[in-house]
Specification:
Helix content is about 25%, strand content about 45%. The protein has two domains: about 150 residues, Secreted effector protein pipB2 fold (2-Layer Sandwich), CATH 3.30.2450; about 60 residues, Roll (Nuclear Transport Factor 2, Chain: A). The chain is globular. The chain contains five helices and 13 strands. The protein starts with 7 loop residues before the first strand and ends in a 13-residue tail after the last helix. It has a five-stranded antiparallel sheet with strand order 9-10-11-12-13, with no helix packed on it. A four-stranded antiparallel sheet has the order 1-2-3-4, covered by helices on one side. This is Transcription factor Pur-alpha 1.
Length: about 240
């Protein structure tokens, strides 16, 4: 049994909302739980492993810089361990906001999200970023070069996850649990696993709140690859209804 304990808490007021940034740890290491409590939405939270703090800071900087330049930041995804954090900027009758959607991991509901209001001149986004920087400076100075992170181009740190003209480019990265193939807003996680029945390949697809999974026994992987090659030789069949490719 693992026990989480609070080591850091910061409350950030934004419009009618409170955001609690709570640094905790368990047997797998440190993580940041960010909870939102507000008048217009049910309480929700996301959990960011410590390795996701740097890209989280870079992504907030990206949206602040884009807005300051008179542009709307495009959608961006951050892949941390077996999770995907999807960012999108939007607006409603109460003003601009940044939506952060967490999918993957062991979330039984498919995903959770936060809505961070921008505030006048992005005041709330800047306060949120300042809180993240304080956590990095006070608790992760041994693993995060914050000055280098703040002085660099934030878009460069998340360029492979930004939507837009390169949204259909296939990007292959290597994570601790295995390779991850990203195509636009789709992310495929490949993991070699084993149980009492033997070894197998687990392929998990995450796309927003949609999650699919394939489990291929080790002895069938070669035939699975053969089946893909045969399917690639066929002419594509037109879908009867318009669907996302």
């Amino acid at each position: 049994m693992s026990i989480s304990y609070m080591t850091y808490l910061r409350v950030h007021q934004a419009n009618s909302k409170s955001f609690f940034l709570d640094l905790k740890s368990n047997a797998r290491g440190r993580y940041l739980k960010i909870a939102e409590k507000g008048r217009y939405r049910a309480k929700s939270s996301i959990v960011v492993p410590s390795s996701g703090l740097s890209p989280l800071i870079a992504t907030f900087r990206y949206y602040i810089d884009e807005d300051a330049a008179g542009r709307v930041g495009g959608p961006a995804d951050i892949i941390v361990d077996s999770k995907v954090f999807s960012f999108s900027a939007g607006s409603n009758e109460r003003g601009h906001f940044l939506r952060i959607f967490e999918s993957g991991g062991g979330n039984p509901t498919g995903g959770t999200s936060l809505m961070v209001p921008a505030g006048w001149a992005n005041t709330h986004w800047k306060l949120f970023l300042s809180a993240l920087e304080s956590i990095a400076r006070e608790h992760f100075s041994d693993v995060i070069d914050l000055e280098a992170l703040l002085s660099g181009d934030p878009a460069a740190n998340i360029s492979s996850t930004l939507g837009g003209s390169g949204a259909e480019e296939a990007v292959l990265t290597t994570k601790e649990l295995g390779p991850v193939l990203s195509v636009g807003g789709k992310h495929f996680f490949f993991e070699m696993r084993s149980n009492e029945r033997g070894a197998y390949l687990k392929v998990k697809e995450l796309s927003g709140n949609i999650r699919n999974m394939l489990v291929i026994p080790l002895h069938a992987i070669a035939r699975f690859q053969e089946a893909i090659s045969l399917a690639m030789q066929q002419q594509p069949i037109q879908d009867s209804a318009k669907a996302e490719p």
